[in-house]
Amino acid sequence: QQPVQSPQAVILREGEDAVINCSSSKALYSVHWYRQKHGEAPVFLMILLKGGEQKGHDKISASFNEKKQQSSLYLTASQLSYSGTYFCGRIIQGAQKLVFGQGTRLTINP
Amino acid sequence: DTGVSQNPRHKITKRGQNVTFRCDPISEHNRLYWYRQTLGQGPEFLTYFQNEAQLEKSRLLSDRFSAERPKGSFSTLEIQRTEQGDSAMYLCASSPVGYNEQFFGPGTRLTVL
User: Fold this and answer.
1) Shortest CA distance to B26 belongs to which of A67, A109, A41, A58?
2) CA atoms of B74 and B52, how far apart (whole Å)
3) Shortest Cα distance from A42 to chain B (angstroms)?
4) Closest residue, chain B, to A37 (C-alpha)
5) pLDDT in tens, B18-67
6) Residue B70 has what DSSP assignment?
7) A50–chain B Cβ distance below 8 A for any pair
8) Which of A38, A87, A88, B57 could form a disulfide with A22 if both were Cys (CB 3.0 to 4.6 A apart)?
9) What is the pLDDT of residues A43-86, one digit of tens each?
């Protein structure tokens, strides 16, 4: 049931781009993306609700391929503030609970 | 600050003791969730309330765990006869009905010695 994220960890220099992937063996009806900094609560980034939907704000965007049961998060021209662990989550159909992936740890170095 | 608040932020207890955590959701949020997070893992769903009704409960939630949300406002999570395996961060989140985003609180870190 748990989505699988890849890679597990990424180290970048400031200004570089990153892609984080999320795939599910079960049907994906929506994908939620959160970022969590060490010792803090997860912070909502965005939800993708329809297949093929793309969303973004600032330099963080995401796509959702419902057919392939995959979503990708794109971070362009990364900033130091982007460091943290990124989680994707799926809502179980007919329920309200979020099932999170294992997370991708992103480190941005100056 | 009108976000989700949780108390206490940290709790250290001895094995076998009972502990209770409190979560105050964002006002007017009908839905309240509890998750547990261990180091290096994503949050795992424990239970969910809509107003005062507990609508879903994970199989992870053994009989030692109980949650309440009297009057549909704040919620408490109690763990009885704590075990070392209960050590984790316990996160609370809330959301309004019909809105998918869940707003998380800062969590309560439990250490069972």
Assistant:
1) A41
2) 9
3) 6
4) B106
5) 999 999 999 989 999 999 999 889 999 999 999 999 998 888 788 999 99
6) G
7) no
8) A88
9) 999 888 876 666 677 789 999 888 888 999 999 999 999 999 99
Counting every residue written for chain B, the total comes to: 113
Write the DSSP assignment of A19-71 as a string of letters.
EEEEE-SS--S-EEEEEE-TTS--EEEEEE-STT-EEEETTEEEEEETTTTEE
Name the one residue in this structure whose structure tokens are 């053994």.
Answer: B62
Q: What b/e string do you get for A24-36 counting C-beta neighbours within 10 Å, with b at 16 or more?
A: beeebebbbbbbb
The model's confidence at residue B79, banded by pLDDT at 50, 70 and 90, is: very high
Nearest to B79 by CA among B62, B59, B60, B65: B65
Residue of B nearest to A101 (CA): B42
